[in-house]
Amino acid sequence: MKIVETSNMVAAQTTPHGFWRFSANYLLAARIVEVKIYEEGQLFFPTLQLYGIAIELALKAFLLKRGLTLNEVRSLSHNLSKALALARRHKLGREVKLDRREIAAIQILDINYSNHRLRYIVTGPTKTPQLVYIERAAKSLVIGLEFLCTGTKGRLDHAVQPYS
């Protein structure tokens, strides 16, 4: 028997909670991989990619919760700057306060993230955000949107403590 999934079925199964859960998983993965940067000086671009995915999914979870359709959220593709601007127009600041350095870090990350330059080798100079600000932005978004998107709070408290 062939199972056919329509876009209506996918939309019904796609929730802010699900987007947030995946966002949290990518945040945790990025934090684990980031340790390698400090220990061995490796994995900078993979860490940025993981933080980018966490930020993208957190913003999309927020936008879904604010009433955007799945098609509207998907139309953003992987553009972090557009997703952030749209989220800010939908009152993201009521849930999460990002400072100017974190906003700038997301916009700088988007230069490479939205074009998949963190996943594919591109020669020549590039601009990257300072890791501390992109990590703070991702952490602020994921933790700050948890209750709004899932109805619970504190799932990541044990896992996102500062490095010792």
Question: Could you give a quick summary of the protein structure above?
Answer:
This protein has helices spanning 7-13, 16-40, 44-65, 70-74, 80-89, 100-113, 131-150. It is mainly alpha-helical.
Poorly predicted sequence stretches spanning 5 or more consecutive residues: none
Summarize the biggest pleated sheet.
none
Helix share, percent: 55-70%
| CATH fold-level assignment | Four Helix Bundle (Hemerythrin (Met), subunit A)
Number of helical stretches of at least 4 residues? 7
Whole-angstrom Rg: 16 Å
Order of helices and strands: HHHHHHH
Number of strands: 0
| CATH class label | Mainly Alpha
Q: Which secondary-structure class do the elements indicate?
A: mainly alpha
What is the residue-averaged pLDDT? 90
CATH architectural arrangement: Up-down Bundle
- Cα distance spanning the termini: 54 Å
Q: What's the number of structural domains?
A: 1
Overall form: globular
Looking at this protein, list some descriptive labels:
single chain, 164 residues, mainly alpha, Four Helix Bundle (Hemerythrin (Met), subunit A), 7 helices, 63% helix, globular, HEPN domain-containing protein
